[in-house]
Amino acid sequence: MCTMTATRDAQISTPAAALSELIAGNKRFVYGSPRYGHDVAQAAATANQQKPHSLVFGCIDSRVPLEAIFDQSFGSIAVARSGAHVLDRSLIGSINFAVAELSVSLVLVVGHKRCGAVTATVEALRAGATVGGDVGYVGYLVDELAPAVRTAGLDEEDATEKAIRVNVVRTVERLRNVPGLAEEIEAGRVDVVGAVYDLDSGWVEFLH
């Protein structure tokens, strides 16, 4: 299991409190007043335990450093990433681990504008690629992201940006139905929320 960031303030133990902390952190980031500088002393202070309040699941895009855009220090959030936050068994297992073993209160799915993976899928479908018909990373992306692109409307001028939002909603819905997570959500101990990051402004829009 890869190392995850984490150590949670005792008061951040509910989905609402965790979400409020991430919203506040994004505001600090956008307004140029981050609280955390990510120095080695902070890393050492959390080296012996981890109790994150949230797991943030985002894209691999290098322009979207999740700890930075939410202004979170060592030990506050666990992070999982894949192209266009596409789910597979290992990611579902990792998210379930964070909920069951690290006691996170919130799972936040973060898409972002101008996502290259979604753009590649739109272009592949417009070029006539068929689901399951290609090989390599494009084939996998087409398989996984085609439903979101088609729901958004392949012929729409802003198909990519619409599909990005649809894909976030689909990922949230899939996670809400994962065994283990579903029971925690029903009990009110965990919530799964979606969001979209604006590369230009730094703001995170939370989807409700």
Describe the structure in your own words.
Helix content is 43%, strand content 13%. By secondary structure, it is an alpha/beta fold. A five-stranded mixed sheet has the order 2-1-3-4-5, sandwiched between helices. Helix 3 links the parallel strand 1 and strand 2. Helix 5 packs across helix 6 and helix 6 (136-152) packs across helix 7 (159-176). The radius of gyration is 17 Å and the shape is globular.
Quick take:
By secondary structure, the protein is of the alpha/beta class.
Topology at a glance:
Blueprint: H1 15-30, H2 40-45, E1 54-58, H3 66-69, E2 77-81, H4 89-100, E3 106-112, H5 116-126, H6 136-152, H7 159-176, H8 181-186, E4 191-197, E5 204-207
Parallel strand pairs: 1-2, 1-3, 3-4
Antiparallel strand pairs: 4-5
